[in-house]
Design brief:
Blueprint lengths: L6 H5 L12 H27 L38 H5 L19 H4 L14 H8 L42 H4 L3 E2 L6 E2 L21 H4 L11 E2 L22 H4 L21 H18 L5 E3 L15 E3 L2 H20 L6 E2 L8 E2 L4 E2 L18 H4 L17 H5 L43
Parallel strand pairs: 3-8
Antiparallel strand pairs: 1-2, 4-5, 6-7
Helix pairs in contact: 9-10
Length: about 450
């Protein structure tokens, strides 16, 4: 009789305890299950033994804080009952002073340091905060006073950023020094009888830290002391602006000086008897110099008190002098001084300076120069970072400018040609030009670390 093969008879042949039998795979799996936790615990114990905090770190520190990678407790202060500890502002302020932003801000929750300066992202620039940090307030800016001088709807450089303030509303340069950039940018004669030269922008405009020689300087004026302070000719930077940090004397152009940029061409000679010019100084200093020179001259040339009239110098409308006059030394000095100063006040000095003759005063009053030291007091700019670019590439207006009142600051559109989003452009986020902290109100921080090893022995 044939055997009947059914599902039940087949199932009866299966060993129901097959999963209890040991196999090679099961042995390896069991070994790994036991070994992996043991290795993890051992590794953590070793890290704790050698005091290496990298195991708990979210990532590498920025370059500025790289020396603190093994000093977690310097920034992360543990609190009772909490496993993790965020970097507290007090930890940041123990090394850095973070002066307050605008006092008129209405935001109640002033952002913590770590909100904008995010660490553990590798060796990146920790100052490079995102635009979101700025736009949270500046996209709908409000101040406690109700009104603000700043644009209220700025989101990014491309979205809402206004034109540079100096180029808005037909603003004029308040400087009083008469200067025609157009003439100086073309071939020009070096001196009355000198060669024709082509000047460059760097012949007059340089950062303070640049120590190269000046092609149009005069050593007599460079080494001379003046009675006025250089700061007296500069307009003070507006108050209430956020003063950024400077870049080692190369970020901004130094004020143009007569001694280094003008003296070789614009001679201050006053009489054919002398081959030197008057000091580039206040009128009273110039007057004393001229008077002394003529007194010394007549003392050495007493015969010159006999004055012969020079017909070519006869002026229409003035009475003719006698053919020959014999003066006293004092009279001769007084006449020569008056003639020299008339030349200086009416022609030489007036070619560049605005002079006012006050009623009853024997000497004119020179109007303040009012040179603008910083055209963008609320922003940061670094000429040194742009030194590879031609000056007229950013300041094309200088080629055609004929009036002192012309503002030659580049328009914002020039900046946007390079500074734009994307890998093929220069940085364009807010931090590139602006600062959050007002560094004019900074306070000095007391040193607290010992070298080497940054041991916190000063706490």
């Amino acid at each position: 009789m044939a055997r009947t093969r059914t599902t039940k008879t087949v199932a009866q042949r299966i060993d129901l305890n097959y999963f209890k039998r040991p196999t090679t795979f099961k042995r390896v799996r069991l070994f790994l299950v036991i070994l992996a936790p043991l290795l993890a615990i051992g590794w953590l114990a070793w890290q704790a033994f050698v005091h290496d905090p990298h195991v708990y770190s979210s990532g590498r520190m920025s370059g500025a804080h790289a020396v603190l990678e093994k000093q977690c407790s310097e920034c992360h202060v543990n609190k009772t009952g909490e496993f993790s500890a965020k970097a507290a502002d007090n930890a940041c302020l123990s090394c850095h002073d973070g002066p307050m932003h605008h006092e008129s801000q209405v935001r109640a929750d002033v952002p913590a340091c770590a909100t904008c300066h995010v660490e553990h992202r590798g060796h990146v620039n920790i100052i490079a905060s995102s635009n979101i940090s700025c736009s949270e307030c500046h996209s709908h800016l409000k101040v406690s006073a109700g009104n603000t001088l700043y644009a209220t709807n700025i989101r990014t450089l491309e979205d809402g950023h206004p034109e540079i303030a100096a180029l808005r509303k037909d603003f004029k340069d308040p400087g009083t020094i008469l200067l025609n950039h157009s003439i100086h940018m073309k071939p020009i004669r070096h001196s009355p009888n000198g060669p024709v030269v082509q000047m460059e922008c760097a012949d007059c405009h340089r950062p303070e830290a640049v120590k190269a020689s000046w092609p149009y300087a005069d050593a007599n004026y460079v080494d001379a002391k003046v009675s006025y302070d250089t700061k007296e000719v500069l307009l003070p930077v507006k108050t209430g602006t956020l003063q950024p940090r400077h870049a080692m004397g190369r970020a901004y152009m130094a004020p143009v000086k007569f001694s280094t940029s003008c003296a070789a061409c614009h001679l201050l000679t006053f009489d054919k008897r002398f081959d030197i010019g008057v000091p580039h100084d206040k009128p009273e200093v110039v007057h004393a110099f001229v008077l002394k020179k003529f007194q010394e001259y007549i003392a050495g040339h007493p015969a010159d008190v006999r004055v012969v009239r020079d017909p070519p110098r006869d002026l229409t409308g003035k009475p003719l002098q006698p053919e020959v006059r014999v003066l006293t030394a004092a009279q001769w000095v007084a006449e020569r001084t008056a003639d020299a100063e008339e030349l200086l006040w009416r022609k030489t000095c007036k070619q560049c300076h605005a002079l006012n003759t006050m009623k009853g005063a024997s000497l004119p009053h020179v109007l303040e120069a009012n040179l603008t030291e910083r055209w963008m007091p609320h922003a940061r700019f670094d000429h040194d970072a742009h030194r590879g670019f031609s000056c007229v590439g950013c300041h094309p207006g200088a080629l055609a400018s004929k009036d002192t009142s012309d503002v030659l600051v580049p328009p914002l559109a020039n900046c946007k040609t390079c500074h734009a989003p994307g890998p093929d452009h220069a940085e364009s986020r807010c931090f590139e030009c602006h600062t959050y902290h007002d560094w004019s109100k900074r306070k000095e921080v007391k040193p607290m670390y010992l070298f080497p090893g940054l041991q916190a022995g000063g706490k």
